[in-house]
Specification:
Low-confidence stretches: none
Shape: globular
Strand order of the largest sheet: 7-13-12-11-8-9-10
Structural class: alpha/beta
Mean pLDDT: 95
Helix content: 25-40%
Radius of gyration: 21 Å
Strand content: 15-25%
Largest sheet: 7 strands, mixed
Number of helices: 17
């Protein structure tokens, strides 16, 4: 029954991606367990991994004439949402800034996101400088949650008051998501035929992916694709760092920096884009357009481009340009409040992992692979839009009971990791085994994780 729930959800997701009601390949689900959550988090994670693998099986069938069977391990898929790397003799930096977290206000709860220095500066501008959450909490308590959220957001920061699911459904932004598809896809004019070999062993070898994404969904997508042999070049601005995420999400990628306000760097970026097959980006709606790289400009620079973009709160409604992260969307969409009610807690109870990010990341990978299939069959480029809030809707409306005889997934064990260590600049570590495989294809990464900005802004072989 548990495996059938995941297979059925995979069919639903694949139909939303492609319009095809049946899966192209056989799907097996192995492993046991669920992450401890009040929503079916593990089944949705496993299904999102499976739909990306199903899209790959279909892509390969265009070259080889048959679709390879897909196997997904629900336990490993869940563990990849925690951290994929176990350091050997060194420690990963903290995932959260010292001020980030949930705070009680005068009339409810709010979450402040301060991981980026610029976002912390906004919070401290509004509330005053603080060295700890204990120091900040009394100041937050004097505010009403909606007023503090508005003050932080209007100043360019990141915050989210806690809504219930019902509150969100009646909120103007929640209503705007009601008719928004999980994948918003549009096709572009045909271009020259692609040059990829699509060999079963390394299916995406020769595919160039320009990665303009940050924490966490987009990097998960491009990490997944790098494991299939894609040449992924991640571009970050100078001054942007993700110390708590780099060792986890830069696996298999080259990471460079460019300043898109600098004419020389803009020229370099445009050269890279002309040579790219895929662009994956997580800028807020309109942000690339303001830089001069809107949808039309991207297509003009690179005809046939497979373009996949991510937004936090959806592509319609007044919040389409609002800054957001998984933990904030969980507060807005009612997930944290539902956890609080179900657990009997007196404070927000979010999901045990950043599941919206990871699920959305695998859906983005699926959209890229489907876009590559479109290029093979019709030579057309495409643009696909996804959002964390729409993924949240997929989770909160996924009404199944998958708890029967399923153990709780907690920490990874020795058997969950590759027998060969990965040597990074931080030290050696052990990487989780891939959560999915095809009959003739397995995920493997040619490059260890590396710091942001460690490579030149040029295409290189993985």
């Amino acid at each position: 029954m548990s495996s059938e729930i995941i297979r059925e959800k995979t069919r639903e997701l694949y139909a939303q991606l492609t319009g095809v009601e049946s899966l192209p390949a056989a799907l097996s689900v192995t492993g046991e367990g669920n992450l401890p959550a009040y929503y079916p988090v593990t089944p949705l994670i496993a299904a999102s991994v499976a739909v990306a693998a199903q899209a790959l099986s279909h892509l390969l069938s265009l070259q080889h004439g048959s679709a390879d069977a897909v196997t997904v391990d629900r336990r490993l898929a869940s563990l990849w949402c925690k951290s994929s790397l176990k350091p050997d003799g060194w420690a990963l930096p903290p995932a959260w800034d010292s001020l980030a977290g949930d705070y009680a206000t005068a009339d409810g709860w709010i979450r402040l996101h301060t991981n980026a220095p610029a976002h912390r500066k906004v919070v401290e501008t509004v509330l005053g400088k603080a060295n700890s959450r204990e120091e900040l909490a009394p100041r937050v308590a004097r505010w009403k949650k909606a007023e503090l959220e508005q003050a932080v957001v209007q100043a360019g920061g990141c915050a989210a008051q806690m809504f219930s699911v019902s509150d969100w459904q009646h909120h103007v932004q929640g209503k705007s998501l009601e008719n928004e598809p999980l994948f918003q896809r549009s096709l572009c004019a045909p271009a020259a035929p692609p040059h990829w070999a699509l060999e079963a062993d390394r299916p995406l070898a020769g595919v160039r992916i320009l990665d303009l994404t940050r924490i966490i969904a987009g990097p998960v997508a491009t990490r997944f694709l790098a494991g299939l042999g894609a040449d992924v070049l991640r571009i970050d601005p100078f001054g942007w760092d993700e110390p708590g995420q780099e060792a986890d999400v830069t696996l298999g990628k080259h990471c460079a920096r460019l300043n898109l306000h600098n004419p020389q760097d803009r020229h370099r970026f445009e050269t890279l884009l002309r040579e790219a097959d895929v662009i994956v980006h997580g800028y807020r709606a309109g942000a690339l357009h303001k830089l001069g790289y809107g949808s039309e400009q991207r297509r003009a620079l690179s005809p046939g481009l497979v373009d996949v973009c991510l937004n936090a709160y959806g592509w319609n409604g007044p919040w389409r340009e609002r800054r957001g992260f998984d933990s904030l969307v969980q507060m807005s969409c009612g997930i944290a409040e539902f956890g609080m009610q179900q657990s009997g807690s007196d404070q927000p109870v979010p999901l045990p992992v950043q599941a919206l990010d990871h699920v959305t990341g695998y859906l983005m990978a699926a959209a890229v692979i489907q876009g590559l299939a479109q290029r093979v069959t019709t030579h057309q480029g495409s643009e696909t839009r996804v959002s964390l809030a729409r993924t949240a809707h997929e989770l909160t409306t996924f009404d199944v009971d998958d708890t029967t005889q399923q153990p709780v997934i907690n920490a990874a064990g020795e058997d969950d990791f590759s027998p060969q260590p990965e040597h990074t600049v931080w030290g050696a570590g052990w990487r989780l085994l891939p959560p999915v495989s095809l009959t003739k294809t397995s995920w493997r990464w040619s490059l260890p994780a590396s710091p942001l900005g460690a490579s030149p802004a040029s295409w290189q072989k993985a």
